[in-house]
Amino acid sequence: MSALTPIHETWKNDNNCRRPKKRTAKTPKTTPFGTAKTVRSSKLEGRAMIVALLNQKGGVGKTTLATHIAGELALRGQHVVLLDADPQGSSLDWTQRRSQQGLPRLFSAVGLARETLHQEAPELTRRADHVIIDGPPRIAALARSALLAAERVLIPVQPSPYDLWASAEMVALIREAQVFRPQLAAAFVINRRVSTTVIGREARQALTEQPLPALRSEVRQRIVFADSVAAGRLARETAPDSAAAQEITALVDELLRWPS
C-alpha cells in the first residue's frame, strides 16, 4: 500500500481549490477541497442522490453494486446516469453486454475516467434524478474528482481484515474532505459476505471500530450475481424473487433514506 501523498501537494492544482488573490481582508484557508468555508460539490447539488462507490482495493464488487443500484433505481421509474470513472470500464462493458443480448437500456452510462470528472459531470447529468459513480480502484486524482462530485460515498468491503486494512487511505481522505465539505456523507457497505464463515459473522463488529458508519444492509456472496453480470442483467431480472434481488432492494431503500 503506498503512502498517501501529502494533501498540500496532491490537491493544490484543483480548480476548486485555487488560492484566492491577496486581499486586505483575511482570506479563508485554502484546502484540497476548497476553502475552510463549506465547499459545495458542483451544480449537481439539489438532485435526489449522487453516490460514488470508492475503494482502492480491487475485487470488492464495486461495479456489481454500482450497476445494480443504478438498475434498481431505474426499475423504479427514475432517470439514472451511471458515470464509469474506472479506467477498466467494467460498467460500460456490462451495458454493452446488455445491448448485445437485446435487452432494453435501463439507464445512461458514460465513461468518465478523467481527473475533470467533477467539472464535466454537471452537464452530462443535468436531467438525472440520480447519479451513480463507479469509482477507480486506487486513491488518485480520479478518486479525488469523484469525491468532489459526490454527495454520498459508499465504500464496499468484503468481510476480511485485508479489505478493512486496504480501506484506511480512502477513509482518511474522506474524513479530511468532510472537514471542509460537511455535506459529504460516507459509509461502508458489506459486500460478498459468506454467512457460514466466522469472519463473515464478525465483520459488522469489526466495522464499529472504524471512524465511518456501516449501512445496515448487506449483500452476500451469491451465484446469481455472477450469472446476471455475465448476461448483462440484474439479479432482479434473472431471479426476481431471489434473496440477491431482495438484498439490492433493501440496500437501495436504505440509500434513499440516508440523510444527505
Q: Percent helix among the residues?
A: 25-40%
Per the CATH scheme, the topology name is: Rossmann fold
Beta content comes to 15-25%
What is the CATH C-level name?
A: Alpha Beta
Anisotropy-based shape? globular
**How many domains would you count in the coordinates?**
1
> Quick one: how many beta strands?
9
Strand order of the largest sheet: 5-4-6-3-7-8-9
Low-confidence stretches: 1-13, 15-32, 35-47
CATH superfamily: P-loop containing nucleotide triphosphate hydrolases
Mean pLDDT: 81
Tell me the radius of gyration.
Answer: 18 Å
Domain CobQ/CobB/MinD/ParA nucleotide binding: 52-232
Region (Disordered): 1-35
InterPro entries: CobQ/CobB/MinD/ParA_Nub-bd_dom (IPR002586), DNA_Partitioning_ATPase (IPR050678), McdA (IPR048089), P-loop_NTPase (IPR027417)
Protein name: Chromosome partitioning protein
What can you tell me about this protein's structure?
With 260 residues, the protein is α/β, with parallel strands linked by helices. It has a single domain, classed as 3-Layer(aba) Sandwich (Rossmann fold). It has helices at residues 7-10, 62-75, 90-100, 117-124, 141-149, 161-166, 168-180, 198-207, 223-230, 235-238, 243-257, and strands at residues 30-31, 34-35, 49-53, 80-84, 108-111, 130-134, 152-157, 185-193, 214-220. Helix 2 (62-75) crosses helix 11 and helix 4 (117-124) packs across helix 5 (141-149). The two termini are 31 Å apart.
